[in-house]
């Protein structure tokens, strides 16, 4: 089952609403809990509330665009097959729209409807490219339009274009396979850090309770816990962004990793420390 399409205005609205909620929680916590340990938890909660909706929408949009790109070679092959029966390019696209190409199917039907209303093929195809808006469609649309203007054997353009897209998808899968271990390293490093500070806290700072004289020199257990909590939160947030940049090529893709790591760190501090 393919993911639904996420519009640009939906992303902007999610950011606006989540930022408003996050700021509201932060201001409320600041006015009522400043200086108390519970303030840190509300600060973390405000950060998660701010980035969580956008992280979900970014992931859904990524899966939608990935599905679009994966179906492009099949679409081009169908267009070539339709043209080989004597159809022109608009007719071939109309015939191809009757088949299933994942999320591309709905966009093709919109394009065919626009052409039936009198929109020229080139303009309708440009609208199609703007709606889909993936890196591969942005490269493909100008080539298809120029080929339609030149006339002749359009399949000479579609065949190599489909091959280029398939090779690009293959390279992308190989890149993701190569970077997956580095994403795992980010997670492992964070959980090792959590384990280390939990053991340090339980074996050293908790025992300081028996040595009250040292409190004037070193941190109290509660102060140490807050410092460790802040350190883990910073590492979780930025580590997640790094994982997204390495895995999917964009920092925004790391928001989902940040949410996972932030939640894991909070649960560890809440129930173990």
How would you describe the overall organization of this protein?
The chain is mainly alpha-helical and 273 residues long. It has helices at residues 8-33, 37-83, 89-96, 104-116, 121-132, 135-150, 155-205, 221-248, 255-271. The two termini are 41 Å apart. The chain is built from 9 helices and no strands. The protein has a domain at 67-169: Receptor-associated Protein (Up-down Bundle). α2 crosses α3 (89-96), α5 packs antiparallel against α6 and α7 (155-205) packs parallel to α9.
Rounded to the nearest angstrom, the distance between the terminal CA atoms is 41 Å
Q: What is CATH's topology name of the domain at 67-169?
A: Receptor-associated Protein
Alpha-beta classification = mainly alpha
Order of helices and strands: HHHHHHHHH
Feature tags:
Receptor-associated Protein; mainly alpha; 0% strand; elongated; 273 residues; 80% helix
What is the gist of this entry?
The chain is an all-alpha fold and 273 residues long. The protein has helices at residues 8-33, 37-83, 89-96, 104-116, 121-132, 135-150, 155-205, 221-248, 255-271.
Q: What is the strand and helix layout of this fold?
A:
Layout: H1 8-33, H2 37-83, H3 89-96, H4 104-116, H5 121-132, H6 135-150, H7 155-205, H8 221-248, H9 255-271
């Amino acid at each position: 089952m393919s993911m639904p399409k996420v519009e640009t205005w939906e992303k902007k609205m999610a950011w606006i609403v989540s930022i408003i909620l996050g700021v509201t929680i932060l201001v409320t916590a600041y006015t009522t809990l400043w200086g108390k340990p519970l303030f840190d938890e509300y600060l973390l909660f405000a950060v998660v509330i701010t980035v969580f909706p956008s992280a979900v929408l970014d992931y859904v949009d990524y899966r939608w665009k990935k599905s679009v790109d994966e179906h492009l070679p099949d679409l081009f092959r169908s267009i070539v097959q339709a043209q080989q029966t004597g159809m022109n390019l608009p007719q071939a696209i109309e015939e191809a729209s009757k088949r299933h190409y994942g999320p591309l199917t709905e966009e093709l039907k919109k394009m065919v409807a626009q052409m039936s209303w009198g929109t020229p093929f080139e303009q309708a195809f440009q609208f199609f490219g703007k709606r889909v808006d993936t890196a591969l469609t942005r490269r493909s649309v100008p080539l298809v339009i120029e080929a339609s203007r030149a006339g002749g054997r359009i399949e000479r353009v579609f065949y190599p274009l489909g091959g280029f897209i398939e090779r690009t998808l293959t390279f992308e899968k190989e890149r993701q396979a190569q970077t997956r271990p580095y994403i795992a390293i980010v997670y492992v490093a964070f959980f090792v850090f959590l384990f280390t500070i939990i053991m340090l806290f339980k074996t050293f700072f908790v025992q300081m309770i028996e040595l009250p004289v040292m409190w004037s020199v070193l941190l109290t257990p509660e102060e140490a816990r807050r410092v460790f909590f802040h350190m883990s939160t910073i590492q979780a947030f930025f580590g997640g962004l790094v994982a997204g940049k390495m895995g999917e090529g964009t920092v925004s893709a790391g928001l989902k990793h940040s949410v996972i790591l932030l939640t894991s760190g909070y649960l560890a501090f809440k129930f173990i420390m």
